[in-house]
């Protein structure tokens, strides 16, 4: 009780105390511990222009914003509302907002504007948000580096012969200061945002169930204030399954086509080049199944094999023997 009265007296006299002093006196609550104290005001401290960045580019204008909200518990005097915010830089107070009880608000904001930020501005920033019950502290380390344009560290990888219904992921990661914003493209058209997870520095394009219309050329573009860059192109092509006459096996064509890696071709061309007829029927005598087992599961096992094409060449394939199905006719 004595400490609370002491704190209230300090507020009345407008004395400025850095969070470390509050911590030692056990008067203020740390931001991450607010959930333990329902009467403590929740606090957010961030850089408005770069809320998601760990490193800030030198030479930019920035705004450090401390936001205090009403605590979960209150009283008839609106003591839950914040009325005073103090901003600090390396333990020295640099700005105050409010300070009197009539300054209380449901949400109170205090901003510190810095123009053309330099290495001299690097360090630890902090703020104290006070309401009628007590106070909450927050800190924000500021790391500054020279700005740089985007450079891709992860490019999307081509996925060929993907069977209909399978899931596929494409990923892109770009480095740069400030963090680049990533945009996906398919065949020159922008991919809708609702199909993408993440746009800052790292982005994931997911196909939960591949369909024929998903085939195409995909790439990423990364942008920040310093420049632009484009990733490598990745192909997505749909695979084929051919059924053997009078056999309980399924043949998955897994050979690599002798084509440009960025070229996308239709199914008719694919079937013609692979030597498979339009009915997806393969004569049993054209298939050589080895004892080399590639895998097995609840639906059957997969062996390595070779399919004899019309030109006499051998095409490496995976032969899946299904369990519990009648032979195909």
What do these coordinates show?
- InterPro entries: Cell_Adh-Cytoskel_Orgn, Ig-like_dom, Ig-like_dom_sf, Ig-like_fold, Ig_sub, Ig_sub2, Protein_kinase_ATP_BS.
- GO terms for molecular function: ATP binding.
- One of its GO terms (cellular component) is plasma membrane.
- Pfam families: Ig_3.
- Helix content is 8%, strand content 47%.
- The longest helix has 12 residues.
- It is mostly beta strands and 329 residues long.
- Strands 1, 3, 5, 6, 8 and 9 form a six-stranded mixed beta sheet that branches. Strands 11, 13, 14, 17, 18 and 19 form a six-stranded mixed beta sheet that branches. A six-stranded mixed beta sheet has the order 22-20-21-25-24-23, with no helix packed on it.
Distance between the termini: 88 Å
Order of helices and strands: HHEEEEEEEEEEEEEEEEEEEEEHEEEE
Helical residue percent?
Answer: under 10%
The main pleated sheet reads as: 6 strands, mixed
Beta strand %? over 45%
SSE class: mainly beta
Uncertain ranges: 1-26, 241-265, 324-329
Tally of extended strands? 25
Gyration radius over CA: 32 Å
Number of helices: 3
Shape: elongated
Arithmetic mean pLDDT: 80
